[in-house]
């Protein structure tokens, strides 16, 4: 049995054998951690005042830990990946040479001992320089005076996260070396293992999205959480992000400029998890990879060196497991570049799986004559891709037409995507912690409607549309519908108000909450009229209106000013005291609680309130600063029925102007867009003709001004312009203001001056 002393000597000898890697690791980590940190500190603290110094201290107390593990350091992020791979390859590359394998296995050491000698040698090659470089960076932080005990603790967690991220790559690469007999195939296997889960995640979200019109990815689902903890790539990002940003007091910093967070989102968006859950999952994941690599090493035949795979019996299974998802992923990637439906996805997936099967066989045998040697595995791969595509294309399991039984539901919730083009919410600038920063109409507790009959009927309509293929309508049908609306052929009138294109379809998302406790999400397209009827019923509840209207998300303490805009489109800051400002917003709240929700679609706004909110902390590249500018949040539209707001504005001396005075206009330019009756051939793009002319006659200017409207914004569907617009230059202004006209004014029908 080898003594502890001789065992340590073998580890030292292994490190000495890889001396070049130790030097590379030390230099690389010193540059990526210590030098990079020093440069950023010097750049941030040079030539600043005492007040700015205190501000920079607060900033770096937040972002400094991210410099130590790659979460806020691109160079270190790349170094972790590179060193993890190099340490594994240099430590176990002898397994890919028969002479070296025979030599090492002839030593008086068990395979387990040989495994851990190389394993520990590679780990120390990285760990010692990394800890030293991190310690120097921390000392530099102490020297600049912003360190506190909590910051030091977060730095420790950050370094722990960097070590775990390195081990993620290290263990995965070791496992790949055990599975293969050549260094090149080992590297390819490691890359495949590292991104395999991400490819599966892309397929799980991308394939249904391409084939099912009602598919909704949802959030917080069990399979998505499982993917985050079982796939190496998102796990790598979770480790770096959570350990670097743990227990940040201000949530605005949590993932700002966190490189790992954005890289993880490239594969699939996911919610962050607690530090304890991340560390526990990482420990289990790393232990499983290490034990699996050790087990394979003990079972690995010595004659495997030089072969593509260490266990030839796994070749057909690996081929199928790689070629099927990769081909489908290629199909999605290529198919998404074209608007020809799913035919390109199907065609490219079939072509890709054939090519991939040949490529894999070439890697196995390194002989072009054996590209199709594995006939049965190639056939299985081809049938697997074709079978999956057939199930999706023909919706074999009825995904799009599924509708749960009404008595099986506990509650439902509704989200209308078009409303977010009408409402503007103070999501990124709100500092209030008493309410969510944006309305969660799907998952908010108060939005889970118990009396859901109106939403259920809306869902039924969406299912019927999906069954008829309404969501897969060709572009020509939608264009025909829009053109008929533009031409004024649709005559829908309600209560004497102007006609609106309420028969057009809008997107909605519905959440079904089953009595069993599970939730199911679906996307539908339904008519705007049906959505408006449903919203009218839901808005009978005051609590629902408070979630819907942005004014209830504004923190009065953060509002620095209130602006008023009318038909002149000249936002004016209201000269109000803080008490008057609050009273005006309270009056506006009362108006939106009383308004008929249909008026937001059927009536035209006459003006708009907007509020100024400080931007707060901003990031430019890798530099952070406290912005002194204001963010203007608009969309608080005013209507004729908003009696409380309008009366209070009158009291404060502000009157909304409904029309533009011709005396205030210097010039009007009319422009008419002319569409040809013949549709362009498929695959061609037609640019409409535009007729323009300058109007200077006072009578004609007055006629044009009578047809000017404030805005075309509506709750669901914007009014269609008649094809004529006006650029009005007000007296004293240098730039004109753009307006659309309520009725058609055709320059071609008038005398051109």
Automatic annotation (TrEMBL):
UniProt-listed Pfam families: DUF6449 (PF20047)
Residue ranges, compositional bias (Basic and acidic residues): 490-500
Ranges annotated as spanning the membrane: 20-41, 74-95, 116-139, 151-176, 183-207, 273-297, 317-338, 344-364, 376-394
Record keyword Iron present: no
Location of the DUF6449 domain: 512-643
Record region (Disordered): 477-500
Keyword Transmembrane helix: yes
InterPro entries, A to Z: ABC-5_transporter (IPR053046), DUF6449 (IPR045611)
Lineage of origin: Bacteria, Bacillati, Bacillota, Clostridia, Lachnospirales
Swiss-Prot/TrEMBL keywords: Membrane, Transmembrane, Transmembrane helix
Species this chain originates from: Schaedlerella arabinosiphila
Stretches with biased composition (Polar residues): 480-489
Name recorded for this polypeptide: ABC transporter permease
